[in-house]
Specification:
By secondary structure, the protein is an alpha/beta fold. The chain is built from eleven helices and ten strands. The chain folds into two domains: 18-47 and 152-323, Rossmann fold, CATH 3.40.50.1100; 49-151, 3-Layer(aba) Sandwich (Rossmann fold). Bound molecules: pyridoxal-5'-phosphate.
């Protein structure tokens, strides 16, 4: 069965390239390493949210909405890409940011430049602020469209079903044989979409999400539920997925967005060996985890691993002191 994709806006530069990482591979004396460059999706700094927003904003427009609202941390890549997508579509954008940052840099600077309205969560919950902003917009005659954290609903996850179709075409054209996909998993929409796509397009390898914040069991349950809902949304056969959702939560301490030596070493190593930038919150942690797993012998030299780069590099500029 092929997915019945809804309409998507042409926001992303696709297909994103696949590149080999020969110097990192040699250094690790481990499996053959490749990277899928979703940091190059092209929308004001790029990243995985651009693919999701292509579907989400198409739905917003179809519903006649003239404003988008979403929620995230102060350095959220999702919020920055939402602000950019809204600007490009001529929609207003309100961002509910979960803690107050005095320093305006990284993604936060870009949100300002992109013209988003910023609301800081202080004493209320993010949900309460969202409700207040929604009511305000409605009373002003606007029609807001609410995008959940990370764009992780069936509409957003659809983008990663399609991304797996894109990957399978590249694998075939380039005669690649990928055994394992490794990527950073946060709100789960990316991994849920990939899993549905893996089924729909017969990807035979494993998909391993490195959790950046949530305990594995919790995230697995959420991903399995979202994958099932996404498959239904696209008119695909649904399969029991919970046992196939692979999440590693060994690297979630000391918490979301807290930079440790794991991320710092991974960022520096990949930059210096491959000229490739990772981000401090997601891809730095996921690559740090992958390097650690390789050192522990979790993969054989004969295996091929695709690290799916999900973007986030503008956040590097918010971590200057910890990275030098
Ligand atoms: C949001 C994000 C992720 C995680 O994607 P989810 O779909 O939320 O799991 C990974 N990497 C980067 C850079 C992100 O911004």
């Amino acid at each position: 069965m092929t997915p019945n994709y809804p309409h998507a806006l042409p926001l992303a530069h696709l297909p994103t390239p696949i590149e080999r990482l020969p110097r990192l591979t040699e250094l690790m004396k481990g499996p053959d390493l490749y990277v899928k460059r979703d940091d190059l999706t092209g929308l004001a700094g790029g990243g995985n949210k651009t693919r999701k927003l292509a579907y989400l904003l198409a739905e917003a427009q179809a519903q006649g909405c003239d404003h988008v609202i979403t929620i995230g941390g102060p350095q959220s890549n999702h919020c920055r890409q939402t602000a950019a997508a809204a600007a490009r579509c001529g929609l207003g954008c309100s961002l509910i940011l979960k803690s107050h940052e005095k320093e305006i840099n990284g993604n936060l600077l870009l949100n300002h430049l992109l013209g988003a309205h910023l609301y800081w969560v202080a004493d209320e919950t993010p949900a309460a602020v969202t409700e207040r902003v929604t009511k305000q917009l409605l009373s002003m005659g606007h029609k807001p469209y609410l995008i959940p954290v990370g764009g992780s609903n069936v509409v957003g996850a659809t983008a990663y079903v399609e991304a797996m179709e894109e990957l399978m075409a590249q694998i075939e054209a380039q005669h690649l044989n990928i055994d394992v996909i490794v990527h950073a998993s946060g709100s789960g929409g990316t991994q849920a979409g990939m899993l549905v796509g893996a089924h729909a397009f017969n990807f035979r390898g494993e998909i391993l999400g490195i959790s950046v914040s949530r305990p594995a069991e919790d995230l697995r349950t959420q991903i399995a539920a979202l994958a099932t809902a996404t498959a239904t949304h696209l008119g695909l056969e649904t399969v029991a997925l919970h046992d196939q959702v692979r999440v590693n939560d060994d690297y979630i301490e000391p918490g979301y967005g807290v930079l440790t030596d794991l991320e710092k070493e991974a960022i520096q190593l990949v930059a210096q060996k491959e000229g490739l930038l990772l981000d401090p919150v997601y891809t730095g942690r996921a690559m740090g985890g992958l390097i650690d797993l390789i050192r522990w012998g979790a993969f054989t030299r004969a295996q091929r691993i695709l690290f799916w780069h999900t973007g986030g590099t503008p956040a590097l500029h918010a971590y200057t002191q910890q990275l030098i």
